[in-house]
Amino acid sequence: MHANIQFSVLGPVRLHKQGLAEAVGQPRQCAVLASLLLRAGRPVSLSKLVEDVWGDEAPLSAIGSVRTYVYRLRRALGERSDSSVKLVDGGYLLHIPPDAVDLNRFKETTVKAREARSNGDLETAVNLLTKGLEMWKGEALAGVPGPFASQQRRVLGELRVACAEDHLACEVERERYTEAAAELSALLVEHPLRERVCALLMTALYGAGRQSEALTIYHSTSHLLRQRLGVNPSPELQQVHERILSGRFQLPKSTDRTAGGRRTASPRPLAQLPAALPHLVGREKEQERVEHLIADAEASSSVAICVVGGAAGVGKTAFATTVAHRLADRFPDGQLFADLHGEGPGAEPRDPAGILADFLQSLEVRPEAVPETTQARGLMFRDLLAKRRMLIVLDNAWNADQLKHLLPGRPGSMALITSRVQLHALVAAYQALPLTLLPLSQGDARSFLARRLGAARTSAEPEAVDRIIHLAGRLPLALANVAASAAYRPQMPLASLADEYAPSEHGTLDAFTSEADPVLDVRASIARSYRLLDPEAASLFRALGAWPGHVFATSDAARTAAQPEQRVRQTLARLVRAHLVSEIVPGKYNWNRLVAAYAAEQAGSGMSEASDQAVSHDPSTASGSAPAVPVDSPS
Q1: Which of 31, 336, 485, 577 is the most exposed place for a label (fewest CB within 10 A)?
Q2: Does residue 398 sit in the same domain as residue 313?
Q3: Rounded to an integer, what distance in angstroms lies between the CA atom of residue 529 and that of residue 310?
């Protein structure tokens, strides 16, 4: 500023003109400026400036040197500046606006933060304290010599640590325990005798479920206090320790209240997940991949997105919700859940705007404050997630376009998505991890039944168990159907139960169909995937129902459908995308025996191209929603 010069002391001493930093001069000239800046508005005598710069070791030339430094400072400030050094009563007075010094702006910011915190507005307090900490560019008065600068470095350093403590205290109150614990651990390493930092770290560790670490920190700090200072921990710190030890410790609760129609920190983490399975059998490797994704995202400061796919009945939703429960402690701000109804005709895909409205109200945005447009709601949603660590489970997605406003925008949160179709656009645009669930292995399928029916019952009839597994195609949904039937008839031999599920003249899937319990209806589950197909893919699917085995090549499909191989290859790709067939190696495919049975049923039903149009109609013509075959686009 020729007419607006700024000064910084929270780091090296600098003056800034027009936003550009300029060096003040040699170290002792910086010391003179620091003395004038930190006493701005008060005259500083020539002898005091000498004392500030040299202490008791001032040379005879010190007074002349100070006058030279002042002269140079006046020239650096410029004649037309609103900052100037004036001679007053035999001393020097630096005339500057208060906000021209970063220290004054820092103090004003921390005062506002304390007011916001006392009013319960933790988000504003955290934002202000973060802004205050960002003003620091290193150690205060870095490199400035003299006893005055040395004394002020200690004073200002105390202000900086106190600000960091207040910031992390707010984060603990907002129940952001994991993040706060990491920063508090680093702060305690720098200041191992600060008991408030120790108490906050113990609280954060306890809140994150790390009680033993909290107690270890207490003992380490107690030892240091006795060893270095010969004192015991303060009563406040001892009280935190005793309450954690006795299990009576009450974590501070957030009372965050903000303007604008929303709260930004809930009094408790959100917990919207459906019930988890007691045991998730045979998915250990897939769960490990999800955990690796989270670790990689944290290491690279990126957003973690995982898309879980697989055939109908393979257990996508069960996997996602159960794994989400197991990972809940990694996301201390809670979990959001939405069923996107991506099942095509008969169950219209949910509009993202409605899902966002639900999410925003869960995050305590008042209904009247929810924006009108989908884009605006998405912006608000991402803004609310920006300082949270949340797990968003989006079940049964229709396409990538349905998802783009529902994804977190900044690192820390994760989206776990299930879909009946492959979401290539999501993987391409957001580097999402595609995770395809396969039918259970034979051993895992045995474990599945043993856990539900009891090991004694399944081990007594191993051949019957293997037969049931074969009939169920190793699909968790079909196995659950059988297990539920067996659980209600504990005296029935499993061999007799297997006979009930064996193919009959009525069809392989009849025994797996349940109008009374739609959740266990395998036929209905496969039908929902079939209804997603376009007419040409549905026609090929039915034609393949006449194929005698469960493995076939492109040439086999072409002969069966009486179509050119190139065209069939493209159509098969759409069946793969719908998870109705799987590509083993290029040009070779297989499908689950129950999916094949459903195709055979459709082939025998005499469905025509016209009936395909009725089944796979374009919902956009009826309701303005997406077409029957999902448009997988990120934009």
Answers
A1: 485
A2: yes
A3: 11
Give the long-range contacts of residues 168-171, CB within 8 A, separation 24 or more.
168/197, 168/200, 168/204, 169/200, 170/117, 170/122, 170/125, 170/126, 170/129, 171/126, 171/204
Q: In one letter, which amino acid is 118?
A: S
Co-location of 456 and 554 in the same domain: no
Name 556's Cβ contacts closer than 8 Å, sequence gap at least 6.
547
Q: Are residues 277 and 388 in the same domain?
A: yes
- The verdict on 12 and 134 lying in the same domain is yes
* Residue pair 488/517 in contact by the 8 Å Cβ criterion: no
Q: Domain for residue 524, yes or no?
A: no
Q: Which pLDDT belongs to residue 622?
A: 30
The two structure tokens encoding residue 267: 């009094």
Residues 69 and 30: their CA atoms lie apart, in Å, by 9
Give the pLDDT of residue 345. 44
Question: What does the alpha-carbon distance between residue 430 and residue 302 come to, in Å, rounded to a whole number?
Answer: 10
Query: Token pair for residue 475?
Result: 């699909």
Contact 27, 149 (CB under 8 A): no
Of 98, 73, 68, the residue nearest 84 (C-alpha): 73
| 10-residue averages of pLDDT along the chain (635 residues) | 74 85 85 89 88 91 91 79 71 86 92 87 92 93 92 91 93 90 91 93 90 91 92 87 78 53 50 82 87 81 88 89 87 88 68 91 81 86 83 90 88 89 88 90 90 89 91 89 88 89 66 71 85 88 86 89 89 90 89 87 61 39 34 38
The answer to whether the beta carbons of residues 547 and 390 sit under 8 Å apart is: no
- Please answer whether residues 476 and 314 qualify as being in contact, where contact means their C-beta atoms are separated by less than 8 angstroms: yes
**168 shares its domain with 180:** no
Residues 410 and 428 in one domain: yes
Q: 205, 225, 259: which is the final residue of a domain?
A: 259
Q: Return the CATH number at 566.
A: 1.10.10.10
Q: How far apart are CA 336 and CA 272, in angstroms?
A: 5
Whether the pTM exceeds 0.90: the reply is no
The residue assigned the tokens 């993202």 is 352
Closest CA to 421 of 635, 627, 599, 611: 627
E-state strands within 90-148: 91-95
- Could you give the C-alpha distances from 147 to 45, 57, 65, 144, in angstroms and in order? 16, 11, 17, 10
- Which of 109, 110, 107, 98 minimizes the C-alpha distance to 40? 98
With beta carbons less than 8 A apart as the criterion, state whether 498 and 471 touch: yes
Q: How many CB atoms lie within 10 A of CB 452?
A: 19
The reported pLDDT for the residue numbered 610 is: 37
Region of 284 (left: φ > 0; alpha: ψ -120 to 50; beta: rest) is alpha
Instruction: Judge whether 31 and 53 are in contact, CB under 8 Å.
Output: yes
CATH no. for residue 219? Answer: 1.25.40.10
Range of the domain at 44: 1-174
* pLDDT recorded at residue 528: 85
- Total residues belonging to the chain: 635
Q: Are 163 and 133 in contact (CB under 8 A)?
A: yes
